Amino acid sequence: MKPATRAAWDALSRHAAAASSIHLRELFAADAQRFARLSVTWNGWLLDYSKQRVTAQTMSLLQALWQAADVPDWTLRMRAGDAINHTEGRAALHVALRQPAAAGPILHDGHDVMPAVHRELDRMQHFVAQIHGRHWRGATGEPITDIVNIGIGGSDLGPRMATQALAAFRHPDIRVHYVANLDGADLATTLAALQPRSTLFVIASKTFTTQETMQNAASARRWLVQALGEAAVARHFVAVSTNLAEVARFGIDPDNAFAFWDWVGGRYSLWSAIGLPLALAVGFDNFRQMLAGAHAMDQHFFSAPPAENLPGTLALLEIWNSNFLGADNRALLPYSQSLGLLPRYLQQLEMESNGKQTDRQGAALECAAAPVLWGEPGTNGQHAFYQLIHQGGRLIPCEFIACKTPDFDLPGHHQKLLANCFAQSEALMRGKTLAEITAELAAGGMAPAQVAALAPYRSFPGNQPSTTLLLPQLDPFHLGALLALYEHKVFVQSIVWNINPFDQWGVEYGKQLANRLLPIIEGTTPAAGLDSSTAGLIDYCKL
Ligand code: F6P
């Protein structure tokens, strides 16, 4: 921990020891203004955190931690293009990807990155217009109707999640599919429904060396060439990468390659050409609206004081829950079918960014960083895992997300959806005491002996903390703002925890070992020096 944050941290520890035993019910009973005091609004959004186990004093202590950790200074360093990803010697300038052209320069190594950013956006726009206008056709002259994005991690999760989130905005004649898994079932089942002559592949990989993507790309290429011949590749493959030399080696025409830069982290790349399949799915005007929403959130994050700062508030609340109340996880519960992939997307953003145990000085962290993030859309989760949240005895901070107006307005659906969402956070907060359930069952006419036997099973402890974030609607602008909100939340937490959120060395070791085991499994290298379990597993799979 940085010495500067020590005093603020210790003050929170003392506060937690004194205040954490108070039940949320008592906090609501003691203050009729609790909701008004502990909620923030922005641009038609409402963030209600009054059902968190905090008081005004907790919040001011957390805001003191933000100041002590120097969040404003780190934010300036990020925007100035400093190499804040110090283990890779890279800047983290994803905010440049959504900055309007007229908003001024953003410097990286003394050069303004904005002209290149907007040149690439314009190239994407032109390409999307070509496909939608049926000017770009396949090798046999047929229009393209199906796009297959081949990528993994940050080259898959963002556009995949956003394509589902913006289902209401989809182009009627274009279907976009996503293939990520090395398991051949992913590509094979996708291709089974497609025709080579009307299919376009987008090979998306920052490095253009990722094993999964390269294997899927090679298999897709074989499928196409078998049907249409080698010359067809140019009309059916485009690429998105920072490694244009590898793209050319794969055989993709450089004119059909869209670039981004090493200062864009994979999990922060949706805003770059990695968003191409999304733009093909929903049109470029909608893609630009999403960038505008993200930029609006950037401006809010850069300028709002901590007490009104949405990303800052979410970041500090989670630090409170995990570092001071002991929660080791958070449930993300969107009451929106369209946001169904948001938990998966945020798993990479939060856990790959902040799943670290070494601080910026190379020392072991004294506190836990990112908790486990998990979740599913409501109301489905209510009929699966909510039982454990209500009565399983674990501390599980919940984050509910809902929209004021629906993206698919079927009569009778949306109000029921909202009723369920709000009922869950109310139940989690309030719980039901033994006395309450006893009175309820007795009033229903149950015999006293049966009441006494059943009441313990039907009481709820409550006091489960939750936040509810309400958006006006789910459209490209608000989706962009929502995703930028989480990017900045992760950034604030990384500063307080004193870690680099932009590297991911933990992923490398597994990749290294997979490369070592592959020739053993293929039978080209003898097994030597393996532990008995790994050797036994390989043995079992030998044909
Ligand atoms: O999982 C590790 C990782 O490096 C992610 O950070 C990245 O998003 C993903 O692999 C894919 O990498 P690439 O875009 O280079 O194929």
Structure description:
The protein is α/β, with parallel strands linked by helices. The chain folds into four domains: 3-80 and 292-430 and 465-497, Glucose-6-phosphate isomerase like protein, domain 1 (Rossmann fold, 3-Layer(aba) Sandwich), CATH 3.40.50; 113-282, Glucose-6-phosphate isomerase like protein, domain 1 (Rossmann fold, 3-Layer(aba) Sandwich), CATH 3.40.50; 435-463, no CATH class; 505-542. 48% of the residues lie in helices and 10% in strands. It has 22 helices and 13 strands. It has helices at 3-19, 24-30, 34-37, 56-68, 71-79, 114-132, 157-165, 184-191, 211-228, 233-236, 244-250, 276-282, 284-303, 310-324, 342-354, 386-391, 414-430, 434-443, 448-454, 476-497, 506-522, 532-541; strands spanning 39-42, 45-48, 107-108, 111-112, 146-150, 175-179, 199-204, 237-241, 257-259, 329-334, 372-374, 398-403, 466-471. Strands 1-2-13-12-10-11 form a six-stranded mixed β-sheet, with helices on both faces. Strands 6-5-7-8-9 form a five-stranded parallel β-sheet, with helices on both faces. It has a two-stranded antiparallel sheet with strand order 3-4. Helix 1 (3-19) packs antiparallel against helix 4 (56-68) and helix 12 crosses helix 13. The chain is globular and about 80 Å long. The N and C termini lie far apart (53 Å). 43% of the residues are buried. The model has no long low-confidence stretch (mean pLDDT 96). 6-O-phosphono-beta-D-fructofuranose binds at residues 152-155, 205-207, 210, 213, 266-267, 352, 504, 507.
